[in-house]
Amino acid sequence: MAIFRIKLSLILTYFVFAILLNSVGTVILQVIHSYQISKEAASVLEGFKDIPIAVVSFLIAAWLPRLGYKNAMLIGVALLFAGCLAMPLLPSFLTTKLLFLLVGAGFALVKVSVYASIGVVTSNQAQHASLLNTIEGCFMLGVLSGYWIFAYFMDPLQPASAGWLEVYWWLAALAAINLLLLLSTQFPRLVLPPVTHAAEDFFDMLRLVYRPLVFVFVMSAFLYVLMEQGIGSWLPTFNNQVLGLPNQLSVQLTSIFAASLALGRLLAGQLLKTLNWYGLLNGCLIGMAVLILLTLPLTKNVVLAAELNLLNAPLAAYLFPLIGLFMAPVYPVINSFILSALPQTKHAAMTGLIVVFSALGGTTGSIITGFTFARFSGQTAFYLTLLPLSLLALSLYWLRRLRQHTPVS
């Protein structure tokens, strides 16, 4: 029962952050309308989310086991709670930046704690991979819920209306419930090596990057998140400005992307019991490339129905988000791959590196996509995904090769 309650706490904490972290695409669309912000200016919101994730993770990840994973998660959720309250009370683009800064810093604490806690409540690699895929799958269910929650508060007839800010009262309430659950859950104490100076823990984390396997892994994580955030953050705007859909419908149809990611990760948790991880991930990368090449041509010269709704949108609006089904297994599989090869006391430090490079990849992907979108076209921006996709296929090859010859210990 105690282990179940811990797992539930991890899942719900991740779920709350999923809604806010992946609202960047929706919020980009809304601030462009509500605050008359350019695409280039709006693209920095991903940076306000991801740079704090990278900085906080980089500086304190190795020290978190001594702070305590539960305490770190409590601080993270409290920061999210404060950011949600600020949005409707002080509506502005500056407050929006502050929200994502707080959410990013909080998520750095939460992700390191959640990933490191998985090693505490599982006993082998199969259990580790299964629980990590389940948690990441539930994370994507949070993302999926977020699209519909935000869409409910948006006015398709008045895109510039500030009514969408009301959603943050409800999200603040959800964060408060999550704080109560965490406070009432008892986490096991992790057995740590003798106390060292905080700087030594920090340099231990940095020394991990010198291992070839770890270096190739963090590059793989960077490339994956660059693709996922580049697509996810700009898909609502793509639907709105390329396909010509109303803002509310644009966000609702983007939920297909989140649903595909959730379904793909939950299915991967089962498929990995019988399939080789390398073959599965390469099949997924091929599926992504095929979908990009076949679907993006359908987004040109689109003819819209007289009365648009969820059932008669252009075909491309349904097909392209299905790329999430193929993207889904990559991130949790490579994360589990590297974490399960390290002792539990190194999980926080390794997760810190995961978060840092993931955050840098997310910011890079969103900014590149935003600038390409503004200067060329939405189609060109999404076609560019094929470049990091090809590099990721190469890095996965080296990841498998290095793991076979230089096991991490």
Topology, pairings included?
Blueprint: H1 2-21, H2 24-34, H3 39-42, H4 44-60, H5 64-67, H6 69-89, H7 93-121, H8 125-152, H9 167-183, H10 198-208, H11 212-241, H12 247-271, H13 277-295, H14 315-319, H15 323-327, H16 330-339, H17 347-375, H18 378-383, H19 386-405
Helix pairs in contact: 1-7, 1-8, 1-9, 2-11, 4-7, 4-17, 6-7, 6-9, 7-17, 8-12, 8-16, 10-17, 11-12, 11-16, 11-17, 11-19, 13-19
Description:
By secondary structure, this protein is mainly alpha-helical. The protein has 19 helices and no strands. Helix 6 packs antiparallel against helix 9. It is globular. The model has no long low-confidence stretch (mean pLDDT 83).
At a glance:
The protein is mainly alpha-helical and 409 residues long. The protein has helices spanning 2-21, 24-34, 39-42, 44-60, 64-67, 69-89, 93-121, 125-152, 167-183, 198-208, 212-241, 247-271, 277-295, 315-319, 323-327, 330-339, 347-375, 378-383, 386-405.
